[in-house]
Structure formats: structure tokens, C-alpha cells
Design a protein that fits this description.
By secondary structure, this protein is an all-alpha fold. It has one domain. The chain has 2 helices and no strands. Helix 1 packs across helix 2. The N and C termini lie far apart (about 155 Å).
Length: about 190
């Protein structure tokens, strides 16, 4: 710089009295800010921090509770499946028992029906033989009367004749059925 040149005042550099007043004003504002505003801002930030951390903790607790509930649900589901399998197996076993019982009852009823049918057939055959015996005896006497030409009215004689005739027929029938059974047995062997 050249001597004698006066520098013009710089707008950037404050003057001495402005600098003192500005510094005092800054200190007053800084103290008010430090005493009044900074604690409320710090309190608000602390509350937000607590809320965020508490929210995260509650979220973790909720997540742990949800995991425990899911575990319990899976356990209950497994138990229910096992119980259902047991019930199904028990039902199958009962079904098999019922089927076996019904088969046994059916077999018993069939055997009873067959035995009753055989008894009825035997009774019917005996009744038919008795009826045929009487009719055959009467017819035989009438035929014999016509052949002989005399009346065979004597009842005792009639009975003796009829009984003898029927005994001969039964003997022939027994002999014929015995020989046919023997022939069948020989053919089967």
C-alpha cells in the first residue's frame, strides 16, 4: 500500500462500539437460550428417545409373545393331529369289531334259518309220509280187493297188510339209496 492512502471503512469489519454491543447481545441471547430453551429441547429429545426405545422394547416383547403363541399353536396343532389319528384308529378298530360281530350274527342267523328249514322239511316229510302211508294203504287195499275179488274189510288184517307192504317199500328204498350212495362214493374216489 502506498503512504497516505486512507483505507475506506470495510463493511465487513465492525466498529468497536458495535462489536461490544453485539457481543453483549449475543451473550444475553446465548444465556437465555442455554437456560430456557436448551432444557426444553433436551427434555423433548429425551422423551422422543424414551418413546423410540420403549417402542422398540415393546415391539421386541410383542414379537417374543407372538413367537410364544406360534409355538403354542404349533404344539396344539401337533397334539390335535395326534388325537385325530388316535380317534381315527379307534374308529377303524371299532368298525372292524362291528363288522366281525355282524358277520358272526349273520352266520348265526343263517345257521338258525338253515336248521329251522331242515327241521321244517323233516316235519313236512314226516307228515307227508304219514299222509301218503294212509292214502297208499287205502289205495293198496282197494287195488288188492279188485284183484282178489273179495272185500278186505277186516281192519286188523288191512293194517297188517299195509304195514307189511310199507315196510317192504321202505326197505327197498333204503337199499336203493344205500347202493346209490356207495356208487357215488366209488365214483368220487
Amino acid at each position: 500500500m502506498a503512504p497516505g492512502v486512507v483505507l475506506a471503512e470495510s463493511p465487513i469489519v465492525p466498529q468497536g462500539d458495535e462489536l461490544v454491543v453485539g457481543t453483549i447481545a449475543f451473550l444475553i441471547i446465548f444465556v437465555i437460550f442455554w437456560k430456557k430453551l436448551l432444557p426444553s429441547i433436551k427434555k423433548t429429545l429425551d422423551e422422543r428417545t424414551d418413546a423410540i426405545e420403549g417402542g422398540m422394547q415393546r415391539a421386541e416383547e410383542a414379537q417374543a409373545a407372538a413367537a410364544a403363541l406360534q409355538e403354542e399353536y404349533q404344539r396344539n396343532l401337533t397334539e390335535a393331529r395326534h388325537e385325530a389319528a388316535k380317534i381315527t384308529q379307534h374308529a377303524r378298530e371299532q368298525g372292524a369289531e362291528i363288522v366281525a360281530q355282524m358277520r358272526a350274527d349273520g352266520t348265526e342267523q343263517r345257521d338258525n334259518l338253515v336248521a329251522g328249514g331242515r327241521a321244517q322239511l323233516d316235519a313236512d316229510a314226516a307228515a307227508t309220509r304219514a299222509a301218503l302211508k294212509g292214502d297208499l294203504g287205502t289205495l293198496a287195499i282197494q287195488l288188492a280187493s279188485k284183484i282178489v275179488g273179495e272185500s278186505l274189510e277186516d281192519e286188523a288184517r288191512q293194517r297188517g297188510t299195509v304195514d307189511r307192504f310199507l315196510a317192504e317199500l321202505e326197505a327197498k328204498a333204503d337199499t336203493a339209496s344205500g347202493s346209490s350212495t356207495a356208487a357215488t362214493a366209488k365214483a368220487g374216489a
